[in-house]
Amino acid sequence: MFEARLVQSSILKKILEAIKDLLNEATFECSASGIQLQAMDNSHVSLVSLNLRCDGFDKYRCDRNLSMGINLASMTKIMKCAANDDVMTMKAQDNADTVTFVFESPNQEKVSDYEMKLMNLDQEQLGIPETDYSCTIRIPSAEFARICRDLSQFGESMTISCTKEGVKFSTAGDIGSANIKLAQTYNVDKEEEAIIIDMQEPVSLNFACRYLNSFTKATPLSPQVQLSMSSDVPLVVEYKIGDVGYIRYYLAPKIEEEDS
């Protein structure tokens, strides 16, 4: 038996919004420790990794490991039927070919349940190597979303450069060029508004704006985003999901030789 209960169904809604542009379908791997999802996006350029710990749920039970292949568009339709303050429970039997979503209104006056067919997806678990990154940058997630949106109007890719002075986002295209610099800020009263840079060595890498903009769909999940960069390895964009877990996006840097 698998059962996972969240007091705020809005968390799962936001998670789906954060991944459905990149993935059409995905396997939710449920185990005693929680729910994990790992999948390459439809064009095999970026990777999405989601981890929801069992202790982040109000009630969590998973007697046997369960792989649930889910069509994310279908799940989004079901989640649209839930009010944001509904209590949501996902349930499935051990060898089930369906998963049931139960939504309860806070006053328990309305209970609705939706059953969804599961898919058989062949998805290999991708080993993500542990990497010590040259730079980690923590910035307000809304600020990062705005930078990605603004710069994507100028060019198709943007360069993220990290130095001791701060972090610089830059792009160039047919209209001209754009640069946004953020200096490190320490003594901010609100921690989520701080810009914190932890740098071992300077890094400058170029990434496709289209994917970065897709990643920022996770902005509602967290007030801060962390970017981890090293030369020649994928960028990691991580959003913490409250006390429940995290969502991470991995994106390989663009190789400069493409222009020739």
UniProtKB/TrEMBL annotation:
PROSITE patterns: PCNA_1, PCNA_2. It holds the Pfam family PCNA_C. The keyword Transmembrane helix does not apply. GO terms for molecular function: chromatin binding; DNA binding; DNA polymerase processivity factor activity. Keywords: DNA replication, DNA-binding, Nucleus. GO terms for biological process: leading strand elongation; mismatch repair; regulation of DNA replication; response to hydrogen peroxide; response to methyl methanesulfonate; translesion synthesis. It is found in: Nucleus. InterPro entries: DNA_clamp_sf (IPR046938), Pr_cel_nuc_antig (IPR000730), Pr_cel_nuc_antig_C (IPR022649), Pr_cel_nuc_antig_CS (IPR022659), Pr_cel_nuc_antig_N (IPR022648). Residues 127-254 form the Proliferating cell nuclear antigen PCNA C-terminal domain. It comes from the Eukaryota. Coiled coil: none annotated. GO terms for cellular component: PCNA complex. The keyword Secreted does not apply. Residues 1-124 form the Proliferating cell nuclear antigen PCNA N-terminal domain. Belongs to the PCNA family. Homotrimer. Forms a complex with activator 1 heteropentamer in the presence of ATP. This protein is an auxiliary protein of DNA polymerase delta and is involved in the control of eukaryotic DNA replication by increasing the polymerase's processivity during elongation of the leading strand. NCBIfam families: pcna. This is DNA sliding clamp PCNA.
